[in-house]
Specification:
The protein has about 160 residues and is an alpha+beta fold. Helices cover about 25% and strands about 15% of the residues. The protein is built from three helices and five strands. The chain has helices at about 15-20, 45-65, 95-110; strands at about 120, 125-130, 140-145, 145-150, 150-155. Strands 1-2-5 form a three-stranded antiparallel beta sheet. It has a two-stranded antiparallel ribbon with strand order 3-4. A hairpin with a 2-residue loop joins β3 and β4. The longest helix has 19 residues, at about 45-65. The chain is elongated. It starts with 13 loop residues before the first helix and ends in a 6-residue tail after the last strand.
Length: about 160
Amino acid sequence: MHTSTLPKYRGPIPVNWAIRNGDKAIGVSIHWMESECDDVVPRLLWEEVDRCIERLLLLALSRAETGSAGTPQEEGAPTYAGWMEPEFSWIDWSNTREEIHNQVRAIRFGSSGRSGPVATVADRRVRVLRTPLQSADGIKMMCADGPVWITESIPVADSAS
């Protein structure tokens, strides 16, 4: 089972990459392995995805029981969803507002909501936990193409870079 529509976002954190890239939808693929299995880091997803997986798994097991070989994965243009680069944990305000918003969402999803990228705001370092793209109560920050609002953040201790 893989939480992407393979061959897109192969790798350990496909949902984070879909969020990072601003995808409007995610998918789930259930597949048979032909050789050795990759090391996979399990991640708990929200309830809707769990229900989808449950339905698909029952269908896949039923097909496997009847000997169905399934449909081979198209090798066309696979993408790999590996671990995020270390620089991605820092906000660069010269990026677009959507890139920054998706960065906050992707990191927060991957950390079960307990973390976010670090940014400098009014000469202080904060961990940004929530950013709407519409005007909201919070700190308005200018990005390359317009504002984003920080509506939830926590201070970063000097020793915790």
